[in-house]
Amino acid sequence: MSSQEIPEENLPVEQDTAHGAVSGADDPFADPGLPAHKPRIQDIDERAARRSERAVALMFTLSMVSTIAFIASFVVFPVDKIVFIWPFGHVSALNFSLGVTLGLALFFIGAGAVHWARTLMSDVERAAERHPIEAEPEVKAQVLADFAAGAEESGFGRRKLIRNTMFGALALVPLSGVVLLRDLGPMPEKKLRSTMWGKGKQLINMNTMEPLRPEDIVVGSLTFAMPEGLEEDAHDFQTQMGKAALMIVRIEPDDIKNKREREWAHEGIVAFSKICTHVGCPISLYEQQTHHVLCPCHQSTFDLSDGARVIFGPAGHPLPQLRIGVNTEGNLEALGDFEEPVGAAFWERG
User: Region annotation Disordered: residue ranges (predicted)?
Assistant: First the structure.
């Protein structure tokens, strides 16, 4: 339908505008102006304002409670605990609780701020003309005055309940990030300083799973052993073997240069940690003529006839030696644990 066919009473009426401005009928982008301000119930009823204040404070308080629950989750739930939660199924209790509590902590801060802005802060719209970037002193003074007026209208100074609970929520939420640092790894404590070896622990052949006897080890051979009582199906088998793995070699006693090594050996049978002191790789290459062992990862080389000292490569210190002897049954046994931490150096080592 063309404009000629539209009834005249339905056509938009042109209105005169000041200063020669284009009428609304001719300019689709004309500024419609600001609508009349409608006061909210909180603006005219102090009891309603108080209710909104309590609601905002409740949300900030719930945020603080959620943050505390987030931190408590790290203590309450073990890493390997699995629970069934409908409709998610079987999930990690720790991950689920962390996600829910942190999400609620952030949500209640946002919801509280939005509710505060929509019900208690001033909602009067003001239009201002654009000004140059560098404001005049009068404008700066006006901005500061407007800021002060806005702060006064927001009730930030008067409504201490909202202010204090908001500060509490904002102060507690960053603690969640501090607690998350725990996921960088558990504190080593003294776990890296000791192994399963101890006085009386028999040396178990990792191939036959039988106790080792001196006659089982011939000169020039390399045998791997683990401590008695460690089972392959144990949940911490790999963790324990990462510290307790042992390599056994037999050297002619006259070829042993290190006095302590000779005293800690049994008839030339010496036991050293299998874990490289560079980055913890397992050592498995032995050269019987030179009594050198080579780490296949970065070629660190140790002399087993001289206290397993480093003769080549990036390793920083010798392989720890385990003092061994023979029990009443004729089996090789440990006479204690390693006297220094095994494997790669760590920041607490000293």
Answer: 1-31
Rounded distance between C-alpha atoms, residue 114 and residue 135, angstroms? 31
Q: Are strands 332-334 and 324-326 parallel, antiparallel or unpaired?
A: antiparallel
What average pLDDT does range 26-38 have in this prediction?
Answer: 76
DSSP 282-339: BP-EEETTTTEEE-TTT--EEETTTTTEEEESS--SPPPEEPEEE-TTS-EEESS--S
| Residue 6: pLDDT over 80 | no
Count other Cβ atoms within 10 Å, centred on residue 176. 19
Q: Is the dihedral of CA 269, 274, 278, 284 positive or negative?
A: positive
Question: Hey, what are 67's tokens?
Answer: 């943050």
Per-residue CA distances from 114 to 64, 87, 118, 135 (Å): 17, 30, 6, 31
What is the mean predicted confidence (pLDDT) over 102-116? Answer: 95
Three-class SS of 110-159: HHHHHHHHHHCCCCCCCCCCCCCCCCCHHHHHHHHHHHHHHHHHHCCCCC
Distances (CA, A) of 223 to 26, 158, 187, 249, 303: 97, 79, 33, 6, 16
What domains, with CATH codes, occur in the chain? 37-184 (no CATH), 191-334 (2.102.10.10)
CB 93 within 8 A of CB 77: yes
**CB-based contacts of 48, cutoff 8 Å, min separation 6:** 41, 42
DSSP annotation of 34: P
pTM of the full structure? 0.51
149-187 pLDDT per residue, tens: 887 777 777 788 888 898 899 888 888 777 777 667 666
